[in-house]
# Entry
Amino acid sequence: MITIARIVSESFSHRSTETHFFLGKAVFLLKGSSQGLSVMEVAASTHILSQLNLDRTSSWLKTRSKLAPFSGKNEIKSTVERASSLKFPALKTDSVGRLNCTAGVLPYLGNADERVSTERIGVLLLNLGGPETLNDVQPFLFNLFADPDIIRLPRLFRFLQRPLAQLISVVRAPKSKEGYAAIGGGSPLRKITDEQASALKLALEAKDVPANVYVAMRYWHPFTEEAVHQIKRDRITKLVVLPLYPQYSISTSGSSIRVLQDIFMNDPHLSQIPVAIIKSWYQREGYIKSMVDLIQKDLQRFPNPEEAMIFFSAHGVPVSYVEEAGDPYQAQMEDCIFLIMQELKNRGVNNPHTLAYQSRVGPVQWLKPYTDEVLVEIGQKGLKSLLAVPISFVSEHIETLEEIDMEYRELALESGITNWGRVPALNCNPTFMEDLANSVIEALPSAMAISPSKSNITTLAAERDENDIGQYAL
# Structure
């Protein structure tokens, strides 16, 4: 989860490195009158050359390189067969599953009837994003704090949003850089999210649901706008939006969905595409079982597995988000823990457990109990074995690799806990990826076109007290 907490130091990134390729094309000009010709461009990557359905009344066909008259349909058929045997550069797949070769991208345009009858499914993964290098940290933090869902100011003071974001990002950047330097100089989030996109694409194909899978980061490249641009270029006809946050919060899924809504509502073409949004999925059986599998496996590493405390650490949010804005995050988190522990008990695992919230920052009250305080209390009570479970995150990033693995581990050992373990993030866990694929398939029938009067892309409605700036300042 991200709110302003490790927000200040959470920055990951990736420069979009997709390479475009010219796959080759054949232009067939069908003569209709002395005044004009109709044109169909065909991309080799769609394997359409061998499937062309030419108008039988067409008397000649022209390629880009040469005009050639034809005497009849047999000669047309022969020419098409020769065209289909042409050799094209070998294709390869990039990190998010799109086909590439060596020159430029040529989308299959087809004719109007073909475009209507061919459904192209897209899946858009939403995530935080982060700095690729230490030089990216400060601009990443600016993007983060410029988000009105992160620093929530009353309308009267919203003109301060960007100046405040600039000030905070400059002040916080040095400390954040130390955290990223400790995990290798940048966040792995972009790389892992790309790998998840590729795994999801393969899982969908295995279920006979071919789809393009895209990645949209909220605060760094590839930004949501970049992903949406590619969706338009690929002529996607139905889209499923899948935030990579199991639990919904206005500061994570809500913020990304709000940006997506603004883009779609202001684009005549996008507003007609049926869209389905999976706002939260923490209760899904596949996700719960994936988490339980990891917990059960890591418990066996302890000298006395049954004695280890299962310590769920979730990213915190300010209490005002829950109490004033109606954020369902805390309730969903507690329900998620209940479902995980219930599954563990069904498997005969009855270890004690607790939930705490990490990454708080600033003077306002955050969800309690706090992770650092609970670790000290557990150590003082004499508990020696603890298994940390990062429950808000499905990918490794700074809050697991630096905050939990380094800061909290050191604090736990200083507090008397001698046996420390940490469950890895799910990343591309096969059971997890299959369940995400199932969630996409289940969501497809509910996809609806977006309109100004009725949109299925919605954020949490939150009324703000315009007269009280104190409750929003972090």
The longest strand covers residues 25-31. The two ends are 17 Å apart (CA to CA). Confidence is low (pLDDT under 50) at residues 1-117, 453-474. DSSP finds 13 helices and 15 strands in the chain.
